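Input structure tokens:
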């Protein structure tokens, strides 16, 4: 499992903190683009204006799959710039 990610209620979950709302929103949009390209979509929550929680889970498999791990690692790349 990628660093910073936890298994929570059957999903990979991580919270990312950004300097401001604009950076957090840009990250959400970048994750959205990656998700669309992979045809695999996370649950995303932007809260407290600069925190983003991402949850990956393959609903059709009712579990965490390799695709979830791959996209979690992609989120890490996007967050690090």
């Amino acid at each position: 499992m990628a660093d910073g990610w936890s298994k929570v209620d059957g999903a990979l979950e991580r919270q990312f903190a950004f300097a401001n709302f604009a950076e957090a929103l840009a990250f959400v949009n970048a994750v959205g683009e990656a998700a669309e390209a992979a045809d695999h979509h996370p649950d995303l929550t932007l809260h407290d204006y600069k925190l983003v929680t991402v949850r990956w889970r393959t609903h059709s498999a009712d579990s965490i799959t390799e695709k979830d791990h791959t996209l979690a690692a992609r989120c890490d790349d996007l967050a690090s710039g």
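The longest strand covers residues 11-17. The chain has two helices and four strands.
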